[in-house]
Amino acid sequence: MSSPNNIPSESQNIAQPTPLRKLSISINQNSTSTPPPKEDNNNTVNSAKDNTTTNTTNNMISAQPSYNKYLFENLSLVSPAVTPSPSTPKSIPVIPTNEFLNNNERNSLPDELPQVVCVARARIPTTNGQEIFLHLYSNNIDNKEHLAIVFGENVRSKTLFKKYPHETQSDRMTRGAYIGKLYPGRNTADKDPKTGEELHFDINGELIYDNQHSVCPESEESTLVRIHSECYTGETAWSARCDCGEQFDEAGRLMGKAGRGCIVYLRQEGRGIGLGEKLKAYNLQDLGADTVQANLLLRHPADARSFSLATAILADLNLTNIKLLTNNPDKIIAVEGKNRLIKVTERVPMVPLAWNGPHAHGIKSKEIDGYLRTKIEKMGHLLQKPINISNHS
Ligand SMILES: Nc1nc2c(ncn2[C@@H]2O[C@H](COP(=O)(O)OP(=O)(O)OP(=O)(O)O)[C@@H](O)[C@H]2O)c(=O)[nH]1
Hints:
By secondary structure, the protein is an alpha/beta fold. The protein has helices at residues 60-63, 65-74, 103-107, 158-161, 169-175, 232-235, 244-258, 275-286, 291-297, 308-316, 329-336, 366-378, and strands spanning 26-27, 45-46, 53-54, 75-76, 92-93, 116-125, 131-139, 146-151, 223-229, 261-266, 321-325, 343-348. Mean pLDDT is 78; it is low at 1-88 and 95-99.
């Protein structure tokens, strides 16, 4: 990567995103329904119990109602999961020998990380009163604009701050590669005229991470991080089908309180299947499927996401020890990457706000009850609903 605009072409050394978890589905041995004949070998789903194989087929929804019925009846639960208290999130240490660090899952991650370049950064004053620094990334595996929302002034991107030959101080300020704050008439990017703080670079123009100059060195203290996947419906269209909007706001609140943190915002709408397919999945859910079944019926994996871009972005920001806000154990393994470039030292649970008591704020709907139930029962999310909170009906 020789300049911020010089992104390697797709053919160069592309690390392929790997879908996270291949959903294991237990076939109910006592079921009386008979499986319909297999049609093809696509979208093979392995049974966790007996290792038999089920196949899904194209246009199954309209063409094969009996198959749908069979699938709906026989998708049973595989991942009993438990954990945290529903109150204020307390972080849970992630120990290298624990249940999350499943070697098979780690070994299935790509050997190489995608290449990312932070092309611009800007200060955003927010309606909450805090200031954030929005970082926009390009990469060599897709054409999407992934983001890092950074809380705290001294988290710095290596690729953004790199000095390029012939680049002026004005160019650097325009890209957002400056120390301190911008104000009318400022003319240096690498030195803050108000405080005298200065950035330092090696002979290749790479930023030197240095405590004395208020640039955060490789952080020994873990930084609070959320890896958030885009959800137009939950974040913009006030959807009560999922808790994505609430999780996003809560992550921002916690990071604002801590004065430091980073939300990596990945453009993988609908767990990677895209908004159009997610809307179809919603219609299937209204017809009786759960979130996992709806994806499978549309011939998508239960979760089509990859988190290797998040790993690369965190490494670019020099955030290598992190406390991860998540209930999804797959994310912990995925974001650490095959070689554990990033280390998740703690997991901070994201407990739905509505579970904090009968009068608590938070999303309440029958759809979200089903959505969370499926996450817990089928996707292994580490949440346990307190028994004193009744289901919405
Ligand atoms: N396919 C599909 N995607 C959904 C649905 N509801 C929300 N999403 C997407 O799910 C993604 C968020 O992932 P979640 O599975 O909710 O949570 P997670 O990121 O795996 O785990 P946490 O870190 O604990 O939040 C976003 O991309 C949403 O757009 C749905 O019903 N179907």
